[in-house]
Amino acid sequence: MSAIGDISKSVEEINTISMTIASAVEEQAATTNEVSRIVSESSKAVEGISISIKDVSESAVQSSTGASQLQDAAKGLSQLAIKLRDLLARLEAK
Prior knowledge:
The protein is mainly alpha-helical. 98% of the residues lie in helices and 0% in strands. It is built from 1 helix and no strands. The protein has one helix at 2-93. The radius of gyration is 40 Å and the shape is rod-shaped. The model has no long low-confidence stretch (mean pLDDT 94).
């Protein structure tokens, strides 16, 4: 009877260990799913940030282009003002 009792005790210990392993596997699967969800959300957030940075970069290029065009227009107006001043000076001299 002692051998049967030992075998029964060993089976119970194996059963307990198996249940502990099964529980750990379930917890690991839940953790893996949560990490996967967080990585997915982070990826979406990074994509949104990347799009925002691209938009800001495009806006900066447009602003730079606009500033350059404004500077060219100001130079043109300055040259026109000089020509107008010279013309008026010539008219007043006559």
